[in-house]
Amino acid sequence: MRKRDVMLCAALTLVALPAAGQSPEKPESSSQSPRPAASQGKPVPPPAPRLKGAEATQPADPEAAGKTVEEIIARVNNEVITLSEYEKARQTAEEDAKQECQGRCTPEQLQTDIEDRRKNTLRELIDQSLLVQRGKDMGLNVEAEVIKQLDQIRIQNKLESMEALEKAVSSEPGMNWEDFKNSIRNRILTQKVISSEVGSHITIGDDEVKKYYEAHKSEFVRPEEVALREIEVSTQGKSPDELAALKKKAETALKRVQDGEDFGEIAKRYSDSSTKEQGGFLGVYKRGELAKELEDKVFNMKRNELTEVLETKQGYLILQVLEHYGEGQQPVDKVRNEIMDKLYTARLEPAMRDYLKTLREQSYVIIKPGYQDVAGPGSSEIQEVSAMPEASKQKKGHKKFLPFGKKSGASSGKSGGDTGS
């Protein structure tokens, strides 16, 4: 069951990992730094980036002496990953492991999880940088989504203005406002790239759903439950004069769904809740897990039925019973979407490995000695390369991007097996 955490610290944890080399001072515009150009069929190394100083231990400008010089440990095309970003990501990985392991694993299991996460840190930073750069190459503009998400965080934390949110974010140790916004931006970009370039190619057939159901019937013996979606129009921080317009907004959203429009799409457009990005999906609930007045209402509703506009302390709420599961063995039609999600997730991981492998092969990645990533059992290392890697000399400077590797008959000679991404 997915529950919402509306605390600012949770939002900070979610987006505290800036994408590799994404300096907040960089403007977000269509005039992105180009990929390495072609020169006689060989990739040209990208120009040395400037990030809080230079790689040299002595600044060329005498006036720059005494300024902080960031150690660059990896370069991904025209972007860099610094030592401070790497160390921050490793610390975040440890904190995430501790939070997820609370009361569910032994100290030994926790330590193993921490070590696994930390040894994959550099790989994940590189992958994130590649995905963000790909999103920019695709011309994706997510500024509207960034603003909406910032405003949602503000509302969830009952802050009266964006300035108050900025102050709250900046008061967190090791966090600043530009990093916070940039992390949200990069996370949204990454999600859009994965959805467009990988997820859209994954299809699940009805025969596969039935086969999984027959092989895992015991998973679908359950108590009575309801799966809910929501549209929430927030009234937090609003004046009494604004309430009528907000209620009208909720009523308009309800009317559009009643008239046949998709609930998920209306939730994305009208809802102020963080669930809007998932089409309003709120979770699956047993009896006793909801407020009594809501429980009495939704457990007497059928699939796809809607509540009226409900007034709550947070705002105006519309609920839809996405599915009502009776007690006992659930029929396949009731768990079809759940099975499709399981199969989709199982396919997404290897598809992402193939995608990132292709993306990496078409990019310029250099890693400083001593920072190679072993990536755990079953995966190859991220290989350190020279300034003009021999393995890259046969590549063309500008290839057409192929989401799932080269077409059959390409001159690569590589199989679609395990990836070094």
UniProtKB/TrEMBL annotation:
Name assigned to this protein: peptidylprolyl isomerase
UniProt keyword list: Isomerase, Rotamase, Signal
Claim: Endoplasmic reticulum is one of the keywords in the record: no
Domain spans labelled PpiC: 223-323
Composition-biased stretches (Low complexity): 29-40
Record InterPro entries: PPIase_dom_sf (IPR046357), PPIase_PpiC (IPR000297), PrsA_foldase (IPR050245), Trigger_fact/SurA_dom_sf (IPR027304)
Top-rank taxon, per record: Bacteria
Single Gene Ontology MF annotation: peptidyl-prolyl cis-trans isomerase activity
